[in-house]
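Q: I'm building a small set of examples for a reading group on sequence design. Run inverse folding on the following structure and report the sequence directly after it, with nothing in between.
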């Protein structure tokens, strides 16, 4: 079977996308999905998404990590899929779709920015790994570590792969594991917060992670950051807006940033 694919990226977080409204894609063939995401033997991507029909919604988002397995919510992926839906003519500027963590609203702005409404989140909880670390669930589970000046290194120098791998597989997060975000605290909390992320399922650092920067923004609010929070990833700048709730949680959480079609083609499956 030959299918047309599309490659999208949101601040360097890249995805292979298929228009699967005819429901022809074999979602059980995890090895084939992993091959399609392979950067040497396939198209190459951090994840793969299907756009499918779903009654009551503009479309459904079906997401797989680069290892070929279904995963939790992907924020940059959701934003890219909204841009793809507009490219197909499935939606105009506003979208309402279903993902693995529930319904999401989104909007494509005139400048190409895609704003995605994330799920409400509980207050950041102290993590079981590390003294200055917190855990936040933003549709995907995230461990957030703030680099302190006394640690003696900058985020650019930090071993994200090594430290991220260790925390991702720490027994505190068995059996599913966790995504791990490392944050450099800016001198002025109104300035962009530098973030680097190790993603489970990719098992490496990615250039950006949407649910990750959302977790960082919510955690940073406990360190003086006010909504909206700007976050600088290696792949570009993202913004997270939110409303803090009296009980310590967060509502009306929106992730904003670019979502760009890179290229498309055909591939035999």
């Amino acid at each position: 079977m030959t299918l047309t694919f599309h490659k999208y990226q949101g601040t360097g977080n890249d995805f292979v996308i298929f228009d699967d409204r005819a429901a022809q894609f074999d979602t059980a063939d995890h090895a084939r999905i992993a091959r399609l995401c392979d950067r040497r033997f396939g198209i190459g991507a951090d994840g793969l998404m299907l756009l499918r029909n779903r009654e009551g919604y503009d479309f459904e988002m079906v997401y797989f990590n680069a290892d070929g397995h279904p995963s939790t919510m992907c924020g940059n992926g959701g934003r890219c899929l909204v841009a793809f839906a507009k490219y197909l003519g499935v939606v105009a500027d506003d979208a309402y779709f279903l993902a693995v963590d529930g319904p999401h609203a989104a909007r494509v702005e005139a400048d190409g920015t895609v704003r995605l409404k994330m799920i409400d989140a509980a207050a950041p909880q102290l993590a079981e790994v590390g003294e200055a670390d917190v855990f936040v669930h933003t549709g995907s589970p995230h461990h957030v570590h703030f680099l302190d000046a006394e640690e003696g290194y900058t985020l650019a120098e930090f071993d994200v792969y090594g430290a991220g791998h260790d925390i991702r597989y720490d027994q505190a997060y068995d059996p599913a594991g966790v995504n791990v975000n490392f944050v450099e605290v800016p001198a002025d909390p109104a300035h962009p917060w530098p973030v680097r992320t190790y993603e489970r399922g990719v098992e490496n650092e990615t250039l950006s992670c949407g649910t990750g920067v959302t977790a960082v923004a919510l955690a940073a609010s406990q360190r003086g950051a006010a909504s909206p929070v700007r976050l600088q990833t290696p792949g570009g700048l993202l913004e997270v807006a939110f409303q803090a709730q009296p009980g310590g949680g967060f509502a009306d959480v929106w992730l904003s940033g670019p979502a760009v079609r890179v290229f498309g083609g055909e591939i035999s499956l």
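The CA atoms of residues 27 and 33 lie 8 Å apart.
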